[in-house]
Amino acid sequence: MSIAVVILNWNGELLLERFLPFITQYSEGANIYVADNASTDGSVAFIRTNHPHITILQNSENGGYAKGYNEALALLKEDVFCLLNSDVEVTPGWLDPVLKKFRETPDIGIIQPKVLDLLQKDHFEYAGAAGGYLDQLGYPFCRGRIFQTLEEDRGQYDDDRDIFWATGACMFVRSKVFRELDGFDTDYFAHQEEVDFCWRAQNHGHRVHYVAAATVYHLGGSTLSNMNPKKTYLNFRNSLFSITKNLPRRKAFIIIVLRLLLDGVAAARFIVQGRLRHCWAILRAHFSFYRQFVKMYRKREKVKFVTKYHAATSIVWSYFVHQVRRFDNLVKD
Asked: Which residue blocks in the chain are alpha helix, DSSP H?
């Protein structure tokens, strides 16, 4: 089973200098590529000089995560693609348990490893942690991370299990599944395109899985930090996109109405906190969603929609009202 490790890069010379040595050292047997999103720094020159064995896939523009990977992966022929952020530190043997799982379980189409925090290595990292889920209103959360609360890794999530979505920071996907789904939705640009992708994969009958024996460390926030209003804009808008596309019509309509109301509450909270740019980001996200609603609706596929995400009724209610901070407590809630 051949594997391509593909790092998407945009003006990330310092990150490549820091993290590529780990990738080249610990990815024995993999073909390594850097998909460059029209960088204007010295990224490409650095790779050619210091890592000439790495193949550069040059994209014509910075089309974000979705378009950048779609263009690059269209050129590759390997059986498995590993989509890896440029700010991820990999570990010895990280590929072996993933490839073993793919070989043994043909209906698994997507796999995520354990994602820990590079700056606090005994804690899970925001982007993915031990696998992603959605609550009944479509809000994303993870085993090991609910909103901004990160759990310490004490081995509590060392079981392999199906999850609902895998993080785009380090996602393994069978190439035939990626092509079947026509890749990521480029209208997302960045953020939550992996949620939509995993949702569509399950609508097509493919399982999304977490493999604990594969571990990586993620720096996080290298492109957009959680304090950046653009990230707020993309997360709020793209979440509404996914609900529109991937649920039965009646259920989607009800959830969208509820989400719009709750987004208003979130905007008011930002005002109270003095974070007016984030409030404006939510308003812009809604305007963009309204403009593109018909376009998103037309992307709905004739498939059996997956409507069960998790036992939790509302992660917002559990977190902010009941003060639930751990995934295992949430399950019992």
From this structure: 13-26, 43-50, 64-73, 96-104, 175-180, 193-203, 229-246, 249-272, 276-297, 315-320, 327-332
Residues of the chain with pLDDT under 50: 333
Residues 160, 212: contact at Cβ < 8 Å? yes
| Fold that domain 3-218 belongs to in CATH | Spore Coat Polysaccharide Biosynthesis Protein SpsA; Chain A (3.90.550)
Strand order in the sheet with 132-134: 132-134, 140-142, 145-146, 149-150
Contact residues for 123 (Cβ-Cβ < 8 A; gap 6+): 116, 117, 150, 151, 152, 153
Q: Which residue has the tokens 């808008």?
A: 237
Q: What is the pTM of this model?
A: 0.94
Structure tokens at 236: 């709020």
State percent of the chain over pLDDT 70.
Answer: 95
- How far the first Cα of the chain sits from its last, in Å, is 42
Q: What is the pLDDT of residue 166?
A: 98
**258 φ, ψ to 5°?**
-65, -40
**CA dist., res. 252 & res. 286, Å (int):** 16
pLDDT tens string 282-315: 999 999 999 999 999 999 998 878 766 555 668 9
What's residue 226's pLDDT?
Answer: 65
pLDDT in tens, 61-85: 999 999 999 999 999 999 999 999 9
Measure the CA–CA gap between 189 and 226, rounded to whole angstroms: 17
Residue 227, classified by CB atoms within 10 Å of its CB into exposed (0-12), middle (13-18) or buried (19+), is: exposed
Are 209 and 105 contacting, i.e. CB atoms less than 8 angstroms apart? yes
Burial 181-215, CB ≥16 within 10 A → b, else e: bebbbbbbbbbbbbbbbbbbbbbeebbbbbbbebb
**Domain limits, the chain:** 3-218, 229-332
Amino acid at 207: R
